[in-house]
Amino acid sequence: MIIKLLFDMELLSDSEHDIKIAAKALAGGALVAFPTETVYGLGADAFNTKALARVFEAKNRPHFDPLIIHIANTETLSLIADIKSLAKPIKEKLNILTKRLWPGPLTLVLPKKAEIPDLATSGLPTLAVRFPSHPVAQKLICLAAIPVAAPSANPFGRLSPTRADHVREQLGGRVDFIIDGGRTDIGLESTVLDLTHNIPRILRPGGISQEVIESLIGEVAYALPGEAGASQGEDITSPREVISSPGMLKNHYAPCTPIVIHKSWEMSLIPDAVDEGRLYFSVPDKSQCPADRTRVLSLAGDLQEAAANFFDMLHELDSLGLSLIRAEEAPSNGLGTAINDRLRRASFKAC
Length: 351
Ligand code: TXA
Ligand code: MG
Hints:
Blueprint (H helix, E strand, L loop, with lengths): L1 E5 L2 E4 L3 H12 L4 E3 L6 E5 L3 H11 L8 E3 L6 H4 L7 H14 L4 E6 L6 H4 L4 E5 L4 H10 L3 E2 L14 H8 L5 E3 L11 E4 L6 E4 L5 H8 L3 E2 L36 E4 L1 H4 L8 E5 L13 E3 L6 H16 L5 E5 L7 H13 L3
Parallel strand pairs: 2-9, 3-9, 5-7, 6-10, 11-12, 13-16, 14-15, 14-16
Antiparallel strand pairs: 1-2, 3-4, 4-8, 5-8, 6-7, 10-11
The structure holds threonylcarbamoyladenylate and magnesium ion (MG).
The site of magnesium ion has 3 residues, from loops.
């Protein structure tokens, strides 16, 4: 079923028939927004520089911020990444990671092959690559038979989309097709892991925790905010040289409503105000904010459930026209690290 929304954008279902239409268009240079298990991506043929240029334009994304290339089988990896140039111990770690965590929410930064256009990688000698587990994403990439460059399908610096509606609202007629695959499961972007150093480095915490990665390959380092350019993020026109992964910019993932982060115990001490909303990690205190202005990431305190609800609930609170959102910090382990990372960036500056 195809719903014509605007002259130049079509909403597709996730039926085989519609995915085929999208795949053909994608291979022909169109921009297709599609669901992945993390967030919706804005896909373009990774070899088509015109289509890549449209991705940057549609998102208003600075050209120093490289794209993730999505593939639908592990064999394609060696066609786009220069695996041979990796030292043996890193090759072994790469094998373990791709065997155990792909398909899934893990993006690997590797030396790139020359065939990948510089536009996709912002001129870096490396590329970021991911094999998503979402069946719609896999089918789309398989049928299009190309590696698909896909950033999250939101304007640069804004909340990531976990529903097709978020893409339609935020990018509207700037994309050719949107495939509606329902709400995404994981709800936070992939973890970006740089494998070009002796000790792998997490450039962006995400859907796979540091603990899980370390249990498989041993020590990984963490690019802390303030390190490798992360502290330059106040100004999103910062030069690329100081940004090891531009997703580390301080003011990424921002809603339009300002956010203030609180420790759990602080939340109950602050009196309610009618123009404020609350985002609790877990059980909210009873006396405070009314239900329509309150969201709870996970009543059970489950980090996976909380991550899945995170952008979704921020989108909801952001649509209420509030003057402030007070957000409770998540525990700082597992996926809590990624939730707190997105909270910090969302709180840095409203859009
Ligand atoms: O879950 C996800 O990763 C989603 C879905 C659609 O796959 N995609 C996504 O893409 O979040 P994007 O463009 O919003 O974020 C990609 C991140 C950025 O922080 C970018 O700087 C980093 O990956 N990145 C891309 N190529 C890189 C490279 N060669 N070296 C270091 N960081 C890179
Ligand atoms: Mg993004």
